[in-house]
């Protein structure tokens, strides 16, 4: 005769135990806290800000978030290729070097990134 197990119903499947979580979550948190704290401390000094800018600027320029060269009074460009080569693109209406004939769509932004 078959034995009847009192804790299991006929046809019920046994549940697997819940997955064990590793104790590494605090390590990730500590790393993030240390990174943010370290950058914040570094940004307090002039040398620290210069170091951060030196590392962030190439990425920001590539993404079009920052100029490699700020437009200066007296700038006059033959076209957008020299502006881009100098790292001063895009030029906005009212800034040195901006001309309406360089603004192809008339939106106030000349030498926009080529897409």
From TrEMBL:
<dbReference type="InterPro" id="IPR008613">
    <property type="entry name" value="Excalibur_Ca-bd_domain"/>
</dbReference>
<keyword id="KW-0472">Membrane</keyword>
<keyword id="KW-0812">Transmembrane</keyword>
<feature type="compositionally biased region" description="Basic residues">
    <location>
        <begin position="1"/>
        <end position="13"/>
    </location>
</feature>
<feature type="region of interest" description="Disordered">
    <location>
        <begin position="1"/>
        <end position="26"/>
    </location>
</feature>
<feature type="domain" description="Excalibur calcium-binding">
    <location>
        <begin position="76"/>
        <end position="112"/>
    </location>
</feature>
<feature type="transmembrane region" description="Helical">
    <location>
        <begin position="24"/>
        <end position="44"/>
    </location>
</feature>
<feature type="region of interest" description="Disordered">
    <location>
        <begin position="91"/>
        <end position="115"/>
    </location>
</feature>
<protein>
    <submittedName>
        <fullName>Excalibur calcium-binding domain-containing protein</fullName>
    </submittedName>
</protein>
<dbReference type="Pfam" id="PF05901">
    <property type="entry name" value="Excalibur"/>
</dbReference>
<keyword id="KW-1133">Transmembrane helix</keyword>
């Amino acid at each position: 005769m078959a034995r009847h197990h009192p804790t299991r119903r006929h046809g019920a499947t046994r549940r697997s135990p819940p997955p064990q979580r590793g104790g590494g979550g605090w390590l990730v948190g500590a790393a993030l806290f240390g990174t943010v704290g370290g950058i914040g401390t570094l940004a307090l000094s002039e040398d620290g800000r210069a170091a951060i800018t030196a590392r962030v600027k190439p990425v920001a320029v590539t993404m079009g978030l920052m100029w490699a060269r700020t437009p200066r009074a007296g700038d006059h460009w033959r076209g957008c290729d020299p502006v881009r080569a100098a790292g001063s693109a895009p030029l906005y209406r009212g800034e040195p070097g901006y001309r309406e004939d360089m603004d192809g769509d008339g939106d106030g932004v000349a030498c926009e990134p080529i897409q």
